[in-house]
Amino acid sequence: MKFKASAKYQIPRGTDDLMPGEVEIWQWAEAKAREICRLYDYKEIRTPIFEYTELFQRGVGEATDIVEKEMYSFQDRGKRDVSLRPEGTAGVVRSFVEKKIFAEPQPTKWYYMGPMFRYENPQAGRRRQFHQFGVEVFGSSDPALDAEVISLGIHFFESLGLKGVRAEINSVGDPEVRAVYREKLIEYFEPYKAELSTEAQGRLYKNPLRILDSKDPKTKEIAQGAPSILDHLNEPSRKHFEQLKQYLDMLGVEYVINDRLVRGLDYYTHTAFEFMVDIPGAQASTIGGGGRYNGLVEEFGGPEMPGVGFGIGLERVMLAIGEQKVDVPVKTGLDCYLVTLGDEAKLYGAKLLNEMRHAGLTADRDYLDRKLKAQFKAADRLQARFVAILGDEELKQGQINVKQLATGEQETVKLEELIPYLKERS
């Protein structure tokens, strides 16, 4: 009888089951991220998966796609408005302020990893539940920190063996610059208002910088002629951007200046950047991005305290790893598959298997009382390097037969020597 899964019990659209074989690649990439952060002295922080909705409205910006259209928001049983986190920075800043970390010696360097949630149109590398690796640094306005954060991201991609990842950078100025530039954009786009997408028309007077980020073909074409923010930087913003470029040059980080890069969040000041890589089949080649947010800590009730960080989409990292056929050094298979023949051998086998595992060997055995031939097939399917065969007679003699599957060679060793024998050859 064929089993057909009920639609009632199918996975929600835009989410994924990460299966054995895939999970190991994720674990490897996550371990690389943690190792890179350790080298740069960044400490891990873990914040809740849901927060009060107002946190994201205030921190991310009410005129952003995330807040307007993409958040998973609901009321809890106490009638409080809560949302699944759509990004990581707001929660990290909230923790920094709530725990009064700003009163401690600065800078504070943190990183995070975990699931985020946005109600988007699912496609390759863009899921409704997705995962991010991000870093946040508080307490310094030094452009050297902007460069360090960008360099850390590039270092992470290089550690994975990814090729052709580049940084695109821009300055979005300080509040003074953005106020002037906002008026310049409104002045430019107003004559084209009827030709803009409905979404861009809605943003024209609320947040015209976001029009530069539009995916609508006609709007993108019009935006190409918009004034450049780099032509409207004041002296502090211009100096910050020039110093950032000097640090990136010194660090050997390749970058491209993109004066249309504004990012999709309202909290950025000065530096904005994206990590780019070509991924055929994905709508965009952005694999991560971030920037400086000097007013966000203050916005959440803390003192005036600068910050800078990034978020990298791990689903897109996995796409790039697959597309570039990166050789992932994930260990597969068993060190030893234990075959037991006879009741006494089966009972003792439980002890022997336990000892192998405690000695650091990957080991398994049959639990279905299959014949010898079927057990060898199972060992082959599980990619075992060795099969150890223990019968009642061998147990009495204190011996066990060990067969190396790759060569077919078989030896008889003493039971107490089995583990050293396997470890020496694993």
TrEMBL record:
EC code: 6.1.1.21
A GO molecular-function descriptor: catalytic activity, acting on a protein
UniProt-annotated binding residues for L-histidine: E87, G88, T89, R118, Q132, E136, R263, Y267, Y268
InterPro entries documented for this protein: aa-tRNA-synth_II, aa-tRNA-synth_II/BPL/LPL, Anticodon-bd, Anticodon-bd_dom_sf, His-tRNA-ligase, HisRS-like_core, HisRS/HisZ, HisRS_anticodon
PROSITE patterns found in the cross-reference section: AA_TRNA_LIGASE_II (PS50862)
One Pfam family it belongs to: tRNA-synt_His
Compartments reported by the entry: Cytoplasm
Keywords carried by this UniProt record: Aminoacyl-tRNA synthetase, ATP-binding, Cytoplasm, Ligase, Nucleotide-binding, Protein biosynthesis
All copies of domain Aminoacyl-transfer RNA synthetases class-II family profile, residue ranges: 13-329
Cellular component, GO annotation: cytoplasm
Gene3D superfamilies in the cross-refs: Anticodon-binding domain (3.40.50.800), Bira Bifunctional Protein, Domain 2 (3.30.930.10)
GO biological process, alphabetically ordered: histidyl-tRNA aminoacylation
Catalyses which reaction(s): tRNA(His) + L-histidine + ATP = L-histidyl-tRNA(His) + AMP + diphosphate + H(+)
Cytoplasm as UniProt keyword: yes
Family in the record: Belongs to the class-II aminoacyl-tRNA synthetase family.
Subunit annotation: Homodimer.
Protein's name in the database: Histidine--tRNA ligase
Species: Thermoactinomyces daqus
